[in-house]
Amino acid sequence: MNYLKVIASFLKKEFKQLLRSREMLIVLFVLPAVQLLVMGFAVTNEVKNVQLSIIDYDHSPLSRKLVASFSSTDRFRLVPVAENTQPEDLLLYWKSKVVVVIPPDFGKNIQLFHKTTLQVISDGIDGNTAAIANAYVNGCLVDFYGKWLGKSDLRYLTALQKQNSFDVDYRMSFNPDLQSKMNIVPGIVAVLVTITSMLLSAMSLVKEKELGTMEQLMVTPAKKAQILAGKLIPYLLITLVQIHFSILLTWLIFGIGIQGSFSVLLLFTMCYLFTTLGSGIFISTIVSSQQQAMFFSWFIMVVSILLSGFFVPVQNMPNGIRSISYFIPLRHYITIMREIVVKGSGLSQLTNELFILLGSGVLIFGLSILSFRKRV
Amino acid sequence: MFRSGRMLAVAQKEVFHILRDPRTLMIIFILPVLQLVIFGYAMNMELRRVPLLVEDLEKNSLTREITLRFVNSGYFSVIESRGSGLQPDEPLRSRIAQASLCFPPDFGNSRSDLQLTIDASDPNTAQLIQAYASAIINKYAAENGSILDIRPLIMFNPDLKSSFFFVPGLIAMILVMVCALLTSISISSEKEVGTLEQVMVSPVSPTEILLGKVIPYILLGLMDALLILAVGILLFHVPFRGNFIIFLGFTLLYILTALCLGLMVSTIAKTQQAAMMMAMAITLLPTMLLSGFIFPISSMPKILQVVTYIVPARYYLQIIRGIMLKGNSIAQLYQAGLSLLVMSVVMMLVAVKRFRLKIQ
């Protein structure tokens, strides 16, 4: 019983310290709100408002219709240009990202069903945007052509064309409107949980080291496990409060509700927190100042976020890096977060992740406790 | 009176400080290179091996031909359906497949409709899957006489390599990290410990202190930036099409802006920890999220787009990408350069004003 009493008094001390500082309120409520707001809106894979110029050498009703069809979507923002501009200059002077050149006689050729060549010149610096913008332009052109074909007289169509046109029905499951936030926001919540638990626990341990109060703790009869429990339980609880708050916010701000079961999500979160709190302890054992603790946590966070599939699907990565990403707990936590929130998956679809997170939690937590010594 | 000897003494002291903390130094040099390697190799939007479930209820030569085209494209790896009658969402939820293609019975004879169900929980990938799939399926029609001949031409980065995009971004990032974050922490830590006051009462003038303190960080930042540039050029074959002197000039201007930002933060923050948090909040995060480093500014909501105008990295990124990848000269970049200059002057004025108030 005495054992628990020691922990309880540690908890009391830690909570008093936490509640006295205004920082805690900021971490608990302001940080999630700001991060969700800024990242939720800024971090997007969507490609919108791409600056597009159309150089129209044709000036026929048909070419004007084509120009109009581009301005009707929010994927492009039309930048007006003079007719004799060189497309290369538009890219060099950062005026537009994509330039479509409509040749003279475009309208006439289409009406007569002759082949006509459209040039699409794009700025490849941002490869992802360029690839997606190119696909959009292609889609727009083909769409325009298809609509025109639908309206026009079909007697020009060859038998072959009729035979080989397929009618494809695309179904977008789970996210029919293709909203990018459905993918990003669960990821932000996962990142938030990681930052809070890892950084705060590391900082709190290092702070005692820096101020010299750790030494005072060490000379007390309290056991290593009691000190750590007293240090970590508050951060475990804080992170759990924070995840409730952030999930409430995702619902309020973005209208994203959890499709799956909240208790399953909490179960996974508990498993995951052991890995992050363990990393926090580990960081605190290898650094000597808060500044170093911050840099180390930053280092670990950046590498994990990049390899976790937060921005880019893990599956797109080359094999070597893909196998490294298996060892990053954040990757599995982001996966379960997305699966549960967006697809409503249950435990039966996520058993692999459960074992991986549980295993890495036990491993990292155990190792870091071993490396934490009761000496300075 | 300004004496370079005194300034150098302060600088030397600062160098010792930096060298005594090899862990921070290691992170400053290793993190960007590691990031570059990850970005260059791993951050790839191109689809690979999308698991595609094919449910072929007809099994004739046409369906086999189309399936084969999916396999040969290299974007998809085909999984044969084990049995029909499954809920179409089920394989997506268990993550056996990311898309499923269903040929109805009699496809190719009396029917020409087929269904493609895509897991859209990652909408970006979903759109790419749709685009590639429709290209593959409509290949016949395209081969056999669509009159619309679309000729795409991608300039500056024809292979759409992500390293071309990220090397300049990382240079901007590291310069802010070293010049703004580290200087503000270093100045406010001296303030906190009280050593700044001791230096103030010595005959060293404030200008000498300030210059002495920032010069080592300028050099550190430049070294780090050149390291990334070298790794990018040697390992990832990122081109450098513009003029190196112009690049250096603009880079120094950007360093000045970052330093002014760091100084401003250090005059506002009272403790080292506050400086750290503030510097993170107003230097690192905006540089990462709001500069166009990874996420295109044009896709952001209007309010955030307005905010990006006060992020220095936004302009520097345009400059450095312009010089390295497009071979831009000053004529195309002077506006961005002017914006940086104006920003650093404003921040410098704020910093100086606050610094004076403190001394009084």
Determine the structural class of chain B based on helices, strands and strand pairing. alpha/beta
Chain pair forming the biggest interface: A-B, 98 and 94 residues
Distance between the termini of chain B: 21 Å
Q: Please list the strands of the largest sheet of chain A in the order they lie side by side.
A: 2-1-3-4
By helix and strand content of chain A, what is the structural category? alpha/beta
Strand order of the largest sheet of chain B: 2-1-3-4
Distance between the termini of chain A: 28 Å
Report helical residue fraction of chain B: 55-70%
Mean pLDDT of chain B: 81
Which spans of chain A of ≥5 residues are poorly predicted at pLDDT below 50? none
Largest sheet of chain A: 4 strands, mixed
What does the model show?
The complex is a heterodimer of chains A (376) and B (360). Chain A has 376 residues and is α/β, with parallel strands linked by helices. Chain A has helices spanning 2-20, 22-42, 61-71, 87-92, 106-111, 127-151, 159-163, 181-211, 213-219, 224-254, 262-286, 290-307, 319-325, 329-343, 351-371; strands spanning 50-56, 76-78, 98-102, 116-123, 167-173. Chain A has 2 domains: 2-44 and 180-371, no CATH class; 50-163, abc type-2 transporter like domain (abc type-2 transporter like fold). A 4-stranded mixed β-sheet of chain A has the order 2-1-3-4. In chain A, helix 3 (61-71) links the parallel strand 1 and strand 2. In chain A, helix 8 packs parallel to helix 11 and helix 14 (329-343) runs antiparallel to helix 15 (351-371). Chain A is elongated, with a radius of gyration of 28 Å. The mean pLDDT of chain A is 83. Chain B is of the alpha/beta class. Chain B contains 14 helices and 5 strands. Chain B has a 4-stranded mixed β-sheet. In chain B, strand 1, helix 3 (61-72) and strand 2 (76-80) form a beta-alpha-beta unit. Chain B starts with a helix and ends with a helix. Chains A and B meet through helix 2, helix 4, strand 4, helix 6 and strand 5 of A and helix 2, strand 4, helix 5, strand 5 and helix 7 of B.
